[in-house]
Amino acid sequence: MQKTQLxxxxxxxxxxxxxxxxxxxxxxxxxxxxxxxxxxxxxxxDKDDYRSVRxxxxxxxxxxxxxxxxxxxxxxxxYRAYEDRTGDFFTNTVLGVSxxxxxxxxxxxxxxxxxxxxxxxxxxxxxxxxxxxxxxxxSITGKAAGFDLSIAPRYSKNFHQYKTTVNGKVLxxxxxxxxxxxxxxxxxxxxxxxxxxxxxWTYAGFRRDWTYVGKLSASYQFTDSFSGALSASNSGxxxxxxxxxxxxxxxxxxxxxxxTATLTxxx
Length: 267
Known about the structure:
Elements: H1 9-17, E1 32-43, E2 54-65, E3 70-81, E4 87-90, E5 93-105, E6 109-119, H2 123-127, E7 130-144, E8 147-160, E9 172-186, E10 189-202, E11 211-221, E12 226-237, E13 258-266
Antiparallel strand pairs: 1-2, 1-13, 2-3, 3-4, 3-5, 5-6, 6-7, 7-8, 8-9, 9-10, 10-11, 11-12, 12-13
């Protein structure tokens, strides 16, 4: 995943101008919604250590309920980096549509689908001459013994103007990944764990290593609009017999793990 650069202010203003308050005189609820968040992240290394990674991040999203089954969404954000190349940067902007339920199964099971396109607003995407990226995904959710369960396979295809960058690096064309998660709520508190695994192919057909990100999170709903969360995540490389990769799988490493504190406002 690559970070994308600044420009969520416009999204926040757009969503705020179309908040439910605008429709207070009508009986129907507003089809508009959204959220804005700010979060600080760092790893376990001291800030004076060359391995230290710290950043202040922000994000915003707007959603529109097109019909009972379909909704559209727009999201973006940015971050301020405190190490290496410091400064403020945008992240990529995403425009998509989702279907709430393709079909149901069992007592609580649902299958959802989404299609989204990337607008290359990040510096990295612009340097790689990314035109757009399309991603289709399914989400299978359900409940068991009070736990929320989900698994989401996804496929992405990048569309670059060129197949290589200026330095001759062959760019990524295809990406496949699977996101699985489990969560449990206690009152206004919610505990969750997630695991993302995937691999990618270059335009030359070369497959890269399987990589993963594992994350543990605890959140609390302070009010109907405000929530906060603390999380820790770790990443690494799978054992890949086909490519002879031994990898560095670690369930948790207190130094290299990323720690995040988030405050979210929803409307």
